[in-house]
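Supplementary Methods S3. Input chains for the assembly prediction are listed below.
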Amino acid sequence: GQQVMQIPQYQHVQEGEDFTTYCNSSTTLSNIQWYKQRPGGHPVFLIQLVKSGEVKKQKRLTFQFGEAKKNSSLHITATQTTDVGTYFCAAQGNTPLVFGKGTRLSVIA
Amino acid sequence: NAGVTQTPKFRVLKTGQSMTLLCAQDMNHEYMYWYRQDPGMGLRLIHYSVGEGTTAKGEVPDGYNVSRLKKQNFLLGLESAAPSQTSVYFCASSQGTRSQPQHFGDGTRLSIL
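Predicted structure tokens for the full assembly:
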């Protein structure tokens, strides 16, 4: 079945540093969604990308969808302690959403 | 709005026991999903439903059954619990098309001894 690879699995950063997580698929995707899960919480939808090469921003977060619609990235500028959590990409192909394994972000104050 | 409500929040079972997890949503969503989350494994889809009276298998359906008798409810059953089913279970719902965002409940932490 469809799989999405998400890297890195863990990332520890100093507060104020930037952070990026990557999501890759071997097949062309209809769209890709990003979710954030705080420790002990549930996944919360952040954004959806649909168009080839699409770039969307939410304050310090920048989301990109690759030109071939096979990869995506989430970049956080100047991380804050409130950014702590696990970030998941979720790929939409011909099946229900398939979630990556997530990138767990730790921010050291 | 309550959104997606899961009951119970915690449960401990003995191997071989059965139980049902309940998911209820008040957003009139067509699609509902059950996931399990294990450390380092992300979210894996167990079963899903595209409407009242329908169910379909996901990535890891073995050992689980589901029912969607009412649009707002999606039940996940474990007929004979096994230690390998110890996990955190999340229910989610979304509007009609598959490209819509999923809204998650708070999860059920299930331990099987």
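DSSP finds no helices and eleven strands in chain A. Chain A has a mean pLDDT of 94.
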